[in-house]
Design goal:
By secondary structure, the chain is mainly alpha-helical. Helix content is 67%, strand content 0%.
Length: 218
């Protein structure tokens, strides 16, 4: 089952540096305040360069209101340096935090499958394989939603890709694809719990074991 392929060669220095998707820059340029100050700065700069400010030249001369030298920029330079370092630190911290959470998701799914194989070994192997497949489908859908979906719909092509790689059967795809992703996850959760109940009915491990496996699924 191959749904995510990561190739480091596709993420070169320029492609990462110049990337705007899922960056802060597209959010900033949507703000009216940002454009206001950019246009104001450009207007004042053109007025100064083209000498349109007749009678106000003394404001831009040493001692004037708009005069700037190196000493005036020390405070803003220090603040900018602090915010850049602080923001970079937050980005790295968020990156490692999200990486840990992604690993925990995969580990929890694997533990759930292993526990089913151990506790419910008397049940049919097909039931455990079915639970494993639906567990991976749930994870794949979650990550695809984070990466590509903004309206709660996965899209026909991605549903067809799940069928193509064997993660879903065609009849399962037809049931899930007509709903929003929040409902899809609850549907898969219901299916996995139903399979777990069937396994427990055969192996009769008792409520504590059944609850532990259910907690892994949730």
């Amino acid at each position: 089952m191959t749904y995510f392929v990561y190739d480091p060669q596709e993420h070169g220095f320029l492609s990462v540096t110049l990337r705007c998707s899922r960056a802060v820059f597209p959010v900033v340029i949507k703000k009216p305040g940002w454009w206001f100050f950019v246009l104001l700065n450009a207007t004042l700069w053109l007025a100064l360069k083209l000498q349109l400010c007749f009678g106000y030249e003394e404001l831009f001369e040493p001692g004037g209101l708009f005069w700037l030298d190196g000493a005036h920029l020390k405070v803003i330079t220090g603040l900018l340096t602090f915010f850049l370092v602080f923001y970079t630190s937050q980005c790295y911290q968020r990156y490692f935090t999200m990486g840990t959470q992604v690993q925990d998701l995969f580990q929890t799914g694997m533990k759930c499958v292993l526990e089913n194989k151990i506790y419910f070994f008397k049940a049919e192997p097909e039931l455990c394989r079915l639970l494993s497949r639906w567990m991976r489908v749930s994870l794949l859908i979650t990550f695809k939603e984070v990466m590509h979906c903004k309206d709660g719909n996965l899209g026909r092509d991605r549903w067809d890709q799940l069928v193509k790689i064997g993660a879903l059967r065609q009849e399962e795809r037809d049931i899930l694809a007509v709903h929003r992703l929040n409902y899809v996850r609850y549907t898969l959760l219901h299916w996995m719990m139903y399979i777990t109940n069937q396994c427990d009915a055969v192996s009769t491990r008792g409520p504590p074991v059944l609850k532990g496996v259910m907690d892994r699924i949730v």
